[in-house]
Amino acid sequence: MKKLLAVAFAGLVLMSCSSLSPAGNWTYSITGTPQGDYTGNMSVAKEKSGYSASLAAEGSSIPFNQFSYDKKASKSNGNFNYQGMMVNLEANVTQEEMNGSVSVQGMTFPFKAIRKK
Predict the structure, then answer these.
(1) Contacts of residue 101, Cβ cutoff 8 Å, sequence gap at least 6
(2) Does residue 6 lie in a domain region?
(3) Average pLDDT score over residue span 11-26
(4) Which DSSP category does 13 fall into?
(5) How does pLDDT run across 69-112, given as a tens digit for each residue?
(6) What residues make up the domain containing 92?
(7) What is the mean pLDDT of the chain?
(8) Longest dimension (CA), the chain
């Protein structure tokens, strides 16, 4: 019986790890920029050929030019244009959070997103 429970538990753990994905809706914050902090909603969708993503705040939406997810490393990378500047995102992805940074013109700022339930 103990072996059966251990195998079942291991199977559940493996299934939950393999289903980790950045796809979904998130609340995000980018802090410490010269213009202040940014907060809003982030949407990531699984597409046939990868992922698409966008950031939304104060009635406007910014689509990512590129958004990718490395399943083995559990990391997302992407970039988008903001006020004529290319902004790069790098974040570690867990089931509930993305933690990383955005960089623009040689400056780096903390990025955090929490999955909406």
Answers:
(1) 89, 90, 91, 108, 109, 110, 111
(2) no
(3) 70
(4) H
(5) 999 999 999 999 999 999 999 999 999 999 999 999 999 999 99
(6) 21-115
(7) 89
(8) 62
Q: Is residue 68 part of a domain?
A: yes
Residue 91's SS3 state is strand
pTM: 0.82
In a domain, 11, yes or no: no
CATH code where residue 45 lies: 2.40.128.120
Burial status of residue 72 (CB atoms within 10 A of its CB: 0-12, 13-18, 19 or more)? exposed
Both structure tokens of 73:
């490393």
In a domain, 13, yes or no: no
pLDDT score for 19: 77
Cα-based distances in Å from 8 to 2, 3, 13, 86: 10, 9, 9, 46
Q: Where are the beta strands (DSSP E) in 1-117?
A: 24-33, 36-47, 50-57, 60-63, 66-70, 75-82, 85-93, 97-104, 107-115
Are the C-beta atoms of 24 and 41 separated by less than 8 Å? no
